[in-house]
Amino acid sequence: MFKENATTIPFIYKLIAGLFLFVCMFFVAMGFGAADIAFRDVWLALTSTTTSDKILIIREIRLPREVAAIFVGVALAVSGAIMQGMTRNPLADPGLFGLTAGANAALAIAIAFVPTLNYFGVMIACFIGAATGAIMVFGIASIRKGGFSPFRIVLAGAAVSAFLYAIADGVAIYFKISKDVSMWTAGGLIGTSWIQLQVIVPFIITGVFVALFLSRQLTILSLNEEVAVGLGQKTTQIKVILFIVIILLAGASVALVGNMAFIGLMIPHIVRAIVGTDYRFIIPMSAVIGATFMLLADTLGRTINAPFETPVVAIVAIMGLPFFLVIVRKGGREFK
User: Fold this and answer.
1) For the packed helices 63-87 and 235-257, what is the interaxial angle rounded to 10 degrees?
2) 124 part of a folded domain
3) Rounded Cα distance, 271 and 289, in Å
4) For an engineered disulfide with 249, which of 75, 95, 203, 334 has Cβ 3.0 to 4.6 Å away?
5) CATH number for the domain including 204?
6) Distance between CA atoms of 108 and 99, rounded to whole angstroms?
């Protein structure tokens, strides 16, 4: 039942190649920026206790930033893959299905009403907002008979996202916290700290491990729900757990970098072209490629107009929008 891509290259070799590309991109991201740093200094910063100005820049500014990029890429790519598998919808993406907009709105409300809220509290608010946004999208899309068509859900996602972004903006303007909210929601990695990572990363790691554990069930679910039921799967329980995983991953990402669309849409499609339709392969490869892609996007954002920064969300959107249009034009045929 489960097959890799038509090529005869074993999955392990593909994963090793992906990891090699990831490691190379990590060192490139660590070395390039407004202040170019030699790879030797990067290596010393990671492997020794030596201190210098450049090494301090690496350890205290650039390293936490790139670690954040890695985990955001992992979270969004894996959550997108899960959503596409659960809904059998080639256009599924946390940013297009209202999760990130809901998290942004909840974040704005939390900052407005509880300005002293700590980072853990902000993250919980993002989880609640992500769940609310997703429930609104699926609720609106299910009003009409005929099931969840890909385009109906996308339209519902666009409407709900616009509504929730308007709420976030309205709250920010009314309570005069626009600057504070925009710092969270601009889709950037500037100022990421180790303290933030200590709060966020465990949730992302937990979500990814649960997704890996349920990857076989997700594969069957993505092919045919009736078959899954016939094989004795508890589809409702599996969907609930996977939905919680999506909320954890999307909410954690928004709490860390704000709105970031298209990554969860693009990466799973790219990965399926490499490893096929088995989610035992798609989930780990999506994590690797998603992390690599975010490192690339952040590096481009720091270098194309150095010493000024181009927002990472703009870089991702420039890459993601044409990809989205191609998928819409093909009607998701490459997904099947």
Assistant:
1) 150
2) yes
3) 8
4) 75
5) 1.10.3470.10
6) 14
Nearest CA to 108 among 155, 167, 23?
167
Buried b (16+ CB within 10 A) or exposed e, 211-235: bbebbebbbbbbbeeeebeeeebeb
Residue ranges of alpha helices (H) inside the chain are 11-31, 39-47, 53-57, 63-87, 99-113, 119-141, 150-174, 178-185, 194-213, 215-223, 225-230, 235-257, 263-275, 279-303, 312-330
Asked, for residue 3, whether it belongs to a domain, the answer is: no
Range of the domain at 78: 11-335
Per-residue pLDDT tens over the stretch 128-144: 998 898 888 888 877 76
Say what the pLDDT of residue 55 is.
81
User: Residues in the chain with pLDDT < 50?
Assistant: 1-6, 335-336
Q: Does residue 219 form part of some domain?
A: yes
pTM: 0.86
Residue 6 falls inside a structural domain: no
What pLDDT, in 10s, does the model give residues 210-267? 999 999 989 888 877 777 677 777 778 888 899 889 988 988 887 888 777 789 889 9
